[in-house]
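input
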Amino acid sequence: MQHLGFDVYADLHRWSVSERGKFWSEVIEHLGVVFSKNPNEVLDLGNGVKDPRWLPGAEFNCVDSCFTANERG
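output
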């Protein structure tokens, strides 16, 4: 919350719901997720909110993120 400039949880929640792509982009960065191929975008709502596409174009192996976590700090 502090990193994003929120002092009140309700404000963070409101932002996370209204700006889903930005919120999850921040979460992915904070967690240090490593992609072998970066996504075209975090969230594609081109087919509407009932059919979201998360991380289209991404290639990911969770082992890459797990074993490089200590290297990132």
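quick obs: The chain has a mean pLDDT of 90.
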